[in-house]
Input
Amino acid sequence: MFVRIATAAAIVAMSTAVIARDYVSIAGSSTVFPFATIVAEKVGQNPKFKTPVVESGGSSVGKKGVCDGVGTEFIDIGNASSRMKVKELDYCDKNGVKLTEIKVGHDGIVLANSKKAPQMKISLSDLGKALTAKVPNPNTNGSVGGMIDNPFKKWSDINPLYPDSEIRVYGPPTTSGTRASFAEIVNEKAFCGKNARVKAMGIKAKSCRAMRTDGAYIEAGEQDNLIVQKLQEDQSAFGIFGFSYLDQNSDTLQGTELSGITPTFDAIAAGKYKASRALYFYVKHQHMGVVPGIAEYMNEWTKHWNEDQILTDTGMIPMPKAERIEMAKRMKDLPVLTAANLK
Amino acid sequence: MTDTPKGALSPKEAAKYVAGSIAARNRSESWFQFWGRSAIALALAFLILLFVGILSQGIPGMFQHYVILEVELHKDRLDPQGNMSEDSLYAGDAGGLVNEAIMRALDDPQGRKQKRAARSIMSSGSALRLNHFLKDNLDLIGQTVTVKFAVDDDIDSFLRGFITRETPDADRRINNAVIAFVDKLSADGRISYEFSDYLFTGSASRNAEIAGIKGALVGSIWTLLVCILIAFPLGVGTAIYLEEIAPKNRFTEIIEININNLAAVPSVVFGIMGLAIFIVFFGLPRSIPLVGGIVLALMTLPTIIISSRAAIRAVPPSIRDAALGVGASRMQTIFHHVIPLAMPGILTGTIIGMAQALGETAPLLMIGMVAFIVDVPSGMLEPATALPVQIFMWADFAERMFIQKTSAAIIVLLAFLITMNAGAIILRKKLERRW
Output
């Protein structure tokens, strides 16, 4: 009884203390983070608005966080470097959250190593073969065979043309959109999706998304700078991260040529470099007009996302003009994201 | 029978035996001393390595390069509404005036590429700096004045030699045209290298050259203030009750064990609890020092309770007996005699607990204080971050100048910690009484 009264008293005392938030709260992808913070800082220079608060943490944090519920204790905008899935949108619906999806640009996913070592050239499907957790058993006598744990120790085990060094790749953890996109583009689509034997076994390409856990793929946390430092010290290692980090360290690191295309700003912008993904943010309808500055934050993106602007100087790849116009229109119309849009 | 029975030695033999083992026993002592000394030497070596590493990176991080330009303080363009309000200055064209100044200093470069190269030398915070300068020097309006502006972080890295001329043009963050302009500015004596005035007055920024720790420092102070206001009275009160008043039975024993367990709980757990209780259940906003302070207070409570209890226990019972003997009540005994004597120990424990709270980032992650927050918090209900969080975030930014900034911020955090610990020592020495 006493406990119940005490809790009730505490709730009354605290709920009177609930304060309306007067700044935009944003969280999500660590790839979108550097760009979102630039935009947020620009919004804050306008004396009419407080600077939005931007948290990092990974795409899944952004997509789940924005869907957690309606109310100022929840974030207003979720950043993501991989598109929302129907399952994730269901969670939103369950909590009564309505979203609009805004695409802001692209980012290349690069495999890079130190400039002191030679540049590697590898096909996307071989890269998937080197990094996916399970591969078709290479030693079969004509039969279909099964899937086994990835046996390749060295790049040259896959193809003698590749360097005779151990496969050691530093990359982001499971919460990262960079990793999700990499697994989808490289492991799933380029390797398993095109592999005749995987198809013959009747295995879904989607199941190839898992990365190796035997030490060839090393999770280095959401800290891309840590990977950059590791690569500068360890010349035989490779790293997976966003193009902006390669761009900032172009004097010490080099991008690996994937299926004949070197990751450069122009190649990614033109869509020739396949390992790239779109960057999104998801804005909550119910908070528009409640939390001041959301519309201004969105509008601020449109001022900086063109070619030759500050966001591209930092390494973001701009969208084509037509798409930019469409997204700017979306910011005003705020169409509700439905499961049908995501198919 | 010439054999002596086993185990029984004659005094003579025993003396001989002891004399023979002296060397071995001395040897074992000197070995022990050797290991002890080498352990201390190793610890010292690591400490020195740490300090040399941080200081050699961090001291340059406290300095930065500036470019000195003559700017015309054109009244109508800086302050279009004519009232010097924030809005008017924001609408004004300070950026344009800075731009014209750098172009003049570089003898008006022609062509889009050249102009772009010239513009890229200036920090993007230059317009704001000009507005601040204007506010501080209203009497100079209309004149042409000399102002020093920060250079862009890439230029700063180049001037420090981190970006070299030998690197091929295409691989370099700054191209040959920019380098030629920087060389001209240096030759004209317009580049100066001095103590960064952004480090302590600037807040978080994505432009490394204008980023500072003010916001994080103020955030840390607010958070610690909340933390100490909650943790100190609660912790000391609990310690007094458990040590002086509570009966010793199974129930208080369970409480005692659980307080000790609480001290061993990983700090991130307190963050998860803070998120579930204060933000989701009570609906407090994310990222505010109030919630951060409460969470850190819960984390430091066991430290304060345990050290306070030890301090209270160390007060000799004769003092209590004497007080009770001359007719003092239990409360008078505790508050007039025991607590003042235990105070040095209690304060030391509290300050150590606070120092621990100052260095925490993990519990703050969950409640949204690990975030990019530009505005300096003016209260415990405004979004804020903390010093170690700022260090953690700077360490992850891709721009290279943040590496030195990170070390500079670490030096400030260490200085803060050393001051707190020194305070603890001074308080203890001052209040300590011997009996």
